[in-house]
RNA sequence: UGUCCGAUGGUGUAAUGGCAGCACAAGAGAUUUUGGUUCUCUUGGUCUAGGUUCGAAUCCUGGUCGGACAACCA
């Protein structure tokens, strides 16, 4: 059984996407005895990305919704591109997203059956061995507006075809020497029906079948039949396979086997990123990112490392919907789903990422107070943590301005702000670097009776700042990630350029942050909110002595908007 | 100059011949010891021209625009 996610289970009157409408109708008509069986069929030639997550949620979610089953099947028909590294990562990602497959299969599990299917077509005079070279075949295929011409090998006898095909399998011919083709119609308006290739010779080791085979079925000759063998009732796939459907149906009909129903939907596109495996591979290979799980990548493993939760991704998949028109989803919707989830779950902590020293002149030298701070205001049951407060603190440089604009309600000369969970302070003076003018030290006084919880703590001040004690903080390496591309559509480039010109040079900035001691209790993968700064997670690169933290995303920042307008 | 698919606010997605709704984004306000959260409100849409109908986003026809298809890739 595919795991049921109660949150994504639609309400009685919730809108139903067109695929679920079709399935509801099928169940009503008792098609397949009301059985619903889907599958997620990746090729193990790369890592899964957020686009795959949409498909995974759709397939597993559909099975769960209708009490059906969902398989995981690796469509591994091309040994030169595939690898067990990818198989492992795909299984990990699917599980992490929260799904459990019913059957785990490989297209290569069916190579024997597929071989028999091919022979059956030969016997039915519906397939032939063709000796044309790749170039010749491409020439004879015609174009979308011109019909192709028949291969001179099209009318070989059944016996000759059977013999040649057997010898292809036996390894008697070099790679590329011959192929097995379907005999359909070289003048068909659908190019895919112009005698497509069924089998080709590849003398390569397969990650699953080793050296058992030297001929491999084409995806088109494998995919539909694999679905059929597994009894898949609804083969949900992306739009580009719509033109393949007549071919799949042709195989099913001629082979006289169970007929799954293929339904196509629009693949996901996200603004400010690229989604094709080829481009992602390029980013990895050329070192623009640090591997498939780089937190800037739209891969599942990248999002996981960035600090996304499976819940937020499932919610996203639910919210974007399913339809047949091309969709480009604004990345802000993904961020919304993320914040919505993290806001409920993430423990609050204070950390200063861009520090400037603040000294409270009238606070006793050497004194340390341990103040109570709420762990998560959205989840009061989590209680409190202790934060050490003392005379010398760090605050964010951006929280102090010498001559601020009107709506700035942070710290300024002569101004008052609250230090969160602590006291109200007043800025008395500040020191500047004589050369750069940069503020190097801020001097304040505090009002002892304004500590949080004290009677006078209700005093109204405009701003509240987070802070960290100079001598009681944990230093950590914080990786500030931003979107990977500066352009909404990275592929949108001028003649002669490619998508990489739109790479964001500032997609990663590394800083040293001062964090309250409570950070030490969190382990790689744990998620927290640094108050006023954003959501962060502990990275796997952390060691005993060097804590590494990723910024998952900033908080929604209205001040940035106001400041930006001025 | 082919075949197939598609077209609803900025972005997505509903409405299945009967009041064009929802989410994100954007804008205004309230609350707030996170310029977060929460709450209230606002702006803004049926590609186009005909036809069928009492009534069309929905059905029909033409056009326009977008996408897919000519790998021994999937």
Description:
It contains 13 helices and 27 strands. With 566 residues, the chain is an alpha/beta fold. The chain has 3 domains: 6-270, HUPs (Rossmann fold), CATH 3.40.50.620; 348-472, Beta Barrel (Ribosomal Protein L25, Chain P); 475-566, Ribosomal Protein L25, Chain P (Beta Barrel). The strands form 7 sheets. A 7-stranded mixed beta sheet has the order 12-25-26-27-23-24-13, with helices on one face. Strands 21-18-19-20-14-17-22 form a 7-stranded mixed beta sheet, with no helix packed on it. Strands 4-5-6-7 form a 4-stranded antiparallel beta sheet. Helix 2 (50-65) packs across helix 11 (310-320). The relative contact order is 0.10. The structure holds one RNA strand of 74 nucleotides.
Topology:
Blueprint: H1 18-28, E1 37-40, H2 50-65, E2 69-74, H3 84-96, E3 104-106, H4 111-123, E4 127-130, H5 134-140, H6 158-169, E5 179-182, E6 197-201, E7 215-217, H7 219-229, E8 234-238, H8 245-255, E9 261-265, E10 268-270, H9 277-285, H10 300-306, H11 310-320, E11 327-329, H12 331-345, E12 347-349, E13 351-352, E14 355-360, E15 369-374, E16 384-389, E17 392-396, E18 416-419, E19 424-432, E20 439-446, E21 464-465, E22 468-469, E23 474-481, E24 508-515, E25 527-530, E26 534-538, E27 547-553, H13 558-565
Parallel strand pairs: 1-2, 2-3, 8-9, 10-11, 12-25, 14-20, 18-21, 23-27
Antiparallel strand pairs: 4-5, 5-6, 6-7, 13-24, 14-17, 15-16, 17-22, 18-19, 19-20, 23-24, 25-26, 26-27
The structure holds one RNA strand of 74 nucleotides.
